[in-house]
Amino acid sequence: MRPTRALPVLFAAVAVAHLAALPAGSAVALVTKPALMPLLAACVLVRGGPRLLVVALLFGCGGDTLLQIGGDVPFLLGMASFAAGHACYLVLCSRHGTPGGARTRRLAAGYGAAWLATVVLLWPDLEAGLRVPVALYSLLLVTMALYATRTLPLAAAGGALFVVSDTLIATGVADWPQAPAAQFWIMLTYLGAQLLLAEGLLRSAERAGRTPGPSTDERERQRTASRASTMPKP
């Protein structure tokens, strides 16, 4: 089986094994979690995707690994790793997205209102040392999700799912009541987010690479016109 087919199958198998292990509290979940994003990054790499997309996914692996350790310092370092991945996504969305318009402004208002409401509600229940980092991280997250709406719908959906997943994490950090099998839902939305962002941005990059440029004749006409415009007039 070719790598372009084998790697997605392997990623899907590891993702299913990880999700299945979460409700049971199996050690399989601990082993499989750090392997998920490198496998997805490998899928992007064999399809010739942007290196920055690979880097974003590897930052996700760093965040996944650090969050498994527990404690405030690993949590903050993991959040920083995810933030670096979001910064990569922002660059990719800016590079391959369309200019914002009225729709983008409406979505910005919606994401901004959601960010502000979430921060205000969580603030009293967060530890003092986590309040500002969580607020700043979540602002970067919703900005990435907003910029993702300027690319393909797959990436836009991935950005929105990332907001959902990280909001679930934040409510747990704030010691809010959690749904049954909370880790399962966090990881399900997170994996969906990373997969949709990766696929959406990969397709955006592929589409940009297929955009035809001027033909040889057209380039020659442009050069001739440019030389003619610079010639002194009699």
Can you walk through the features of this model?
- The chain has 234 residues and is mainly α.
- It is 81% helix and 0% strand.
- It contains 9 helices and no strands.
- It has helices at residues 3-24, 28-46, 51-67, 72-96, 102-122, 128-148, 153-173, 182-209, 216-230.
- α2 (28-46) runs antiparallel to α3 (51-67).
- The longest helix has 28 residues, at 182-209.
- The radius of gyration is 22 Å and the shape is globular.
- The N and C termini lie far apart (69 Å).
Distance between the termini: 69 Å
Low-confidence stretches: 211-219
Look at the helices and sheets and give the structural class.
mainly alpha
**What percentage of residues falls in helices of 4 or more residues?**
over 70%
The number of helices is 9
Average residue-wise pLDDT: 89
> What's the helix-strand series?
HHHHHHHHH
- The radius of gyration computed from the alpha-carbon positions, rounded to a whole number of angstroms, is 22 Å
Largest sheet: none
Principal-axis shape equals: globular
Number of strands: 0
In percent terms, what proportion of residues is strand? under 5%
